[in-house]
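quick one, 68 residues, struct below
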Amino acid sequence: MYSTETLVLEHKRQMRELRREIKEATRNRRAETRRMNGVLAECRRQWAVERPKPKRTPLPLRILSFLF
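---
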């Protein structure tokens, strides 16, 4: 049977380890978010420069709408 002191020390060690993992995961997530924001900003800049052209209606639909 473990002594209370041993259990407390083990628990503290596990908590430290978990905190370290959480910090690392948060850091990675923040880096990922920054990258995604960079991509989004680039897309917005591109959009401001050249708006995408509206897509034409597919030919069969145009023919059908002409007939009816």
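The helical segments are 4-49, 59-67.
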